[in-house]
Structures are given as C-alpha cells and as structure tokens.
Design brief:
The chain is of the alpha/beta class and about 625 residues long. The protein contains 12 helices and 37 strands.
Length: about 625
C-alpha cells in the first residue's frame, strides 16, 4: 500500500483591521500566501511553502501610526513550526541607507534584493543583535523602518532595494533554523512609515519590541556609570594578584572607580583557549587567596568585578566528566582541547552556573560579574535531545532556558548584593538582554576609535537606560597627548573603560586620562543620561550631541562636520575630535567661548558670532560657550 503527499495552495487577502484564518490537513504539503492591506505600508505578504497542517491566522492593525502585521500559527498536536516569512514593498524615495544593530555590518548599505535571492541578510535571536532595520537618508529622516516582536527565536530580516524598481523590500523570515516542537506561536512585524528622525526611530523600534514582549530593564545602580579599568588588553591572560593590587592604586589615582579582572585568573595554560574552563577556581600560583585579594583591591577604593565564560566547560577541568554529556555541542575533536557548550535546559547546569556566581559575589566579595559568550548557547544543527524525549531537561527551547538562567542569575545575585554589577557585550545584545544586566559593552575593537564610536552609538540607541560602556581603550605609547585623547573623545558619550598597564603609561598620557575622566564625571548626567543624538550613521557618526536641562555637549569627529551650538540659554561645550585645530559651529546668536586644551588648561577666550563659522579650537580640546545668563551677569 502506498500513499502520496498532496500539495495545495491557499491564497487569501486580508483588509486592514480584519483577520483571516486558513489551515491545511496534517500531512498535507500546502503553500500558503496571504496579503494584508496596511494603512501606510501598502500590501504586506505572509508566505509559507509548506504549512504542514498548521493553522495560520493573519491580521493587520495600527499602533500609534505604525502598521503592524500579526501572524499566529496553531497546530492540533505538538510539531516543529513551519518556515514562513512576512514581507512588504514600499516606494524607495528618500531612502539611501539602511541601519541594523549588527556590530560587524558593512556600513549602512542598501543591499540589492536580487543579489541575495530575496532572502533576509541579517539575523537575530535572544543573545544576538536586535530585529530592527531602519531605512534613512542624508537628511537623517527615516521613511521606512522594520521591527519584529520576535526577541528569542532565531530570525532573519532586512530592508533591501529592488534592483529593477528601486522599491524598498522588507522581509522577516521565521524558523529557518531548527526549533523545538510547539502547539502555537505568534509574532508581529511593525512597519513604520512616519518619516521620523533617524535616532528617535531606532529608539522607538527598540521600545516597541520591549513593550510587545513585556520586557522590563534591569535595575541600574549609579556605579554602572563610573569609569572603569579592565585587565584584558593590558595583561590578556597573564594576570597576578600582587601586580593587580598595584594597578588598582594607579587606577584610583587617575579617577577610575571600578576594575574588572578578566580572563586568566582561572588558568595558567591549556591546550586551547578555553579547554581549562569550567571549574572556575583561581590558580593558586597567581591568586593564592582570592578573598584577600578582592579585599585588597576594594581597600584602594575600587569596586571589583570578575570575568566568567558562561557556557564553557573544557576537557581539562574537573567539571568535564560531570557535564560533558549535558552539552548542546562540543568543540574540538582531540583530547585535551575539547570544549563543551553547556545545555541550559538541564536544571543542574543552571544551578551549577548560578552557584558559581554566588560564590564569586557572596564568598569572594566581588561587586559584580562580567558574563561572557552567552551568544554561544546555540544549536548548530538539529536538536539531538528530541530523539531522547528531552530526558533530564525541564524545558525544550534553548532561548527559553537561557532566559530563565539569566533572570535567575540576576535575582540571586541581587539577593546577596542589591547593587550588583552585571556586564554583557556586543553582539549578545537586544531588548531581552536588557532584563538581565546593567552594563552593555562595545565589542572588542582594540586601537580602533572609529569602530568604538560607531558601536557605542548603536548601543546607546538600543539599550534604553542601561549603562553603555566603550570597548577598553588602548593606544600607542608614542602618541602625542592630543593623539592619546582621540580614543577617549570617540567614546565620550559612554562609560569609558581603559586597559593599559597604568604604571608604565607616559606621564603626559596620564594627564590626558585624568583630565577627561574628570570632565566625563562632571558632565555625566548630560553625557551618559541626557538626550543623546548621534548624527550621520551612514558616515560612522560624524558628530554627536547630548544635553540635559542645564548644558549641552557636542563633539565633531570630521573636519567638515557642522555642529549646532544649540539653545543659547544653556552652557554648551564643543569638543574637537577632528584631529585638526578647528570645528565648524552653527550658532544662533553671538557667544563668548573659553578655549581649553586636551589636559584642561585654558588657552584663551574669543567671541563667536552668530551663523556658521569655522572656530579655532585646540586639537583634542574644547570650547566652553557661555550661556545667555552668564553673559548678562558678566555685563552687570
């Protein structure tokens, strides 16, 4: 007896505000297409090449002037969800660039749709980037933006230019990778055609995703905004207690408030970079008494944090035998050298990790943890756990387990220390991650100020009230003071991390660091918490402004960037990070400007007339433009 798989096609059109439901029989291969008429974004299309018995429900709605297409799928029995996509097409007028949060994106290019065969180019999931794509132009308006409520499961998405028509095509593709069986699933795709400003559009998309999922940001203690010293670039894995205690005193003398002990405290050598991870105990020859070492560092006045690689257990650790069979996959074929990526769906895995971090904070006395590599909690192929009925696991979905792990980590660490510091790093970022930690750091880009600036801006736009940190700063020992200041100025609008051997720093560079740490702390409310607007993402953000009700701080990063002096009722600081001795300033009224060099020494006072002028400002220095009230008071 033989059977044949039947194939059918379901075509539906849905008017705005309406809802259509369509289903196929189990075992039937059915291609589904539904179109939804939106108010401002034309016709959106939902397609599925093989529905496999899943029932699709598609509807369109409006949300504060934005179009939202919602897809809900249901199955009578638990089944692997089908692959499907949501796409739309709008006029391309006024769109020259596209922004996404991926830190390794290639500029802000509008990729031709046909080059990629219509498939989405960028991807996101719980611990990888953000499902947002914003089309914008040189006037910094955004005629079209796309955001998706899917913040957990792998998603591919993007905005593209149609080669033939120059229309903008937006697409989200769901379940292109393996997923756990389920009975129902729903998601929404938001299309914004309101032509808002670029920066606010990105922020608005982030807020929309968080609101759709009910995400609440983690508590952010004030200490999360304090300047920080990291051991990573300075020492890499060659760290020792005595030397770091000396460095802690140096850091305090420069104005730093927190130190991170990065990789190397738990190992001396291993076959591969991480094959000795997993036990998370200090190497006695380097840290003979971790609790005493932490106390010594904290006695200098610094808070202290510890790095841990969350998912890794290497075959050189004692934990290997216990957890090697509780892994999502294992890297490396030879022993020693293998590294298991733990499966957080096992409750004993989660408990082991959480208890490790409790020891770090509760027993050793660290003020926080830097939790690295949570983006490695992935399944590169199918899920072998399904064949065994998910034995021993209390949830089937890896993103669900990571979410549970991270929430429990924060809850239990805050029970020990309410103001605990928890740092994450690009590219494991996004709306869901903001629930778990209070510090979000730029991805590694040593000695690359421009990448640091661009990534910092991206994080500021997508991280809400979380403290955004720069990647650790390093520069050549042969730099001039002005050259040494440029890496600092490029990330002035973030909490800055430094990572050089401080006791060996050029004295002139010490003066630069000390001055700019002081500047950043005096103006931290405007710089780090005020209204933040970076300009011209297509050019790597050529100038940035931040302000509160008292002051305004603008920085130029290109000698042809024209910065706005803003409202003359507030004091304005114009920072020169162009590498030249002048900045183009647009001032609506005459201002008196005091000039300062890169170590904060006053070099003179000049009058700036109204209009667009090229103002001479010391290289890597700044001008302080007095407010209208100050000028009036001086005249009396």
């Amino acid at each position: 007896m033989s059977s044949k798989t039947t194939k059918s096609v379901c075509l539906l059109s849905v008017a705005w505000g309406a809802c259509a439901v369509f289903a196929t029989d189990m075992g039937q291969k059915a291609k589904v297409t539904a179109t939804v008429q939106t108010v401002g974004a034309g016709v959106a299309e939902v397609t599925c090449d093989d529905a496999g018995g899943w029932e699709f429900s598609v509807s369109g709605s409006q949300d504060a002037g934005r179009d939202v297409v919602t897809v809900k799928i249901d199955s009578p029995v638990e089944a692997v969800p089908p692959k499907f996509g949501v796409s739309f097409r709008v006029p391309g007028a006024g769109v020259q660039n596209v922004w996404v949060s991926a830190f390794d994106r290639e500029g802000c290019h509008l990729w031709p749709q046909l080059w990629w065969r219509g498939l989405a180019r960028y991807s996101s999931q719980l611990a990888c980037d953000t499902p947002i794509a914003v089309g914008f132009n040189s006037a910094e308006r955004s005629p079209v933006a796309l955001a998706c409520s899917e913040a957990f499961h792998p998603l591919t998405f993007g905005l593209y230019a149609d080669d033939r028509t120059c229309e903008i095509v937006g697409r989200c593709e769901f379940f292109q990778q393996s997923a756990a069986k389920m009975k129902s699933y729903s998601c929404s795709v938001m299309l914004d055609r309101r032509n808002g400003g670029f920066a606010e559009t990105v922020r608005d998309c982030t807020r929309w995703i968080a609101g759709r999922n009910g995400f609440a940001e983690a508590f952010v203690p004030e200490a999360a905004f304090d300047p920080l010293y990291s051991t990573w670039y300075a020492y890499l894995q060659d760290v020792r207690a005595t030397e770091l205690e000396e460095e802690a005193r140096e850091a305090v003398s420069l104005g730093m408030k927190t130190m991170i002990l990065d990789d190397g405290w738990q190992k001396t050598d291993s076959a591969t970079f991480y094959s000795a991870t997993g036990d998370w105990l200090p190497v006695p020859s380097r840290f003979p008494d971790m609790k005493a070492h932490v106390a010594a560092v904290r006695k200098t006045g610094l808070r202290y944090m510890l790095w841990l690689a969350v998912p890794y257990v290497g075959d050189e650790s004692k934990a290997w035998e216990r957890f090697k069979d509780k892994a999502l996959f294992v890297r490396g074929a030879k022993s020693p050298g293998r590294v298991a990526i733990l499966d957080p769906r096992f409750p004993e895995v989660r408990e082991y990790l959480i208890s490790t971090y409790e020891r770090v904070v509760g027993e050793w006395g660290f003020d926080g943890v830097k939790l690295d590599f949570i983006d490695q909690f992935v399944q590169p192929g199918g899920d072998p756990a399904a064949k065994g009925g998910f034995a021993g696991r209390d949830c089937r979905s890896v993103p669900e387990a990571v979410d549970r792990l991270m929430k429990d980590v924060l809850m239990r660490l805050r029970a020990i220390k309410p103001d605990v510091l928890v740092e994450f790093r690009q590219h494991y970022m996004g709306p869901a991650i903001l629930q778990y930690g209070n510090m979000m750091r730029v991805a590694d880009c040593p000695a690359d100020p421009c990448a640091n600036r661009r990534r910092m801006c991206d994080l500021r736009l997508t991280s809400g009230g979380i403290a955004v940190h720069s990647d650790m700063l390093v520069w050549s020992k042969d730099e001039t003071p002005e050259g040494a200041a440029l890496p600092i100025l490029n990330v002035l609008y973030s909490t800055i991390q430094y990572s050089m051997v401080l006791k060996k720093i050029n004295p002139a560079h010490r003066a630069v660091i000390r001055h700019w740490i002081g500047f950043s702390q005096r103006h931290r409310d405007a710089l780090l918490k005020g209204a933040f607007t970076p300009h011209h993402a297509e050019n790597g953000y050529t100038w940035i402004e931040a302000e509160n009700e008292k002051e305004r701080i603008v920085t130029a990063y290109a000698d042809n960037a024209c910065v706005s002096a803003g409202d003359p009722s507030r004091t304005t600081y114009v920072v020169n990070a162009t590498g030249t001795d002048a900045v183009i300033v647009d001032s609506s009224s005459p201002r008196m400007a005091e000039m300062f060099n890169t170590v904060g020494e006053k070099t003179g006072t000049v009058r700036i007339e109204s209009g667009v002028l090229r103002v001479r400002i010391p290289v890597s220095g700044y001008a302080r433009l007095a407010s209208r009230r100050e000028i009036a008071n001086r005249a009396q």
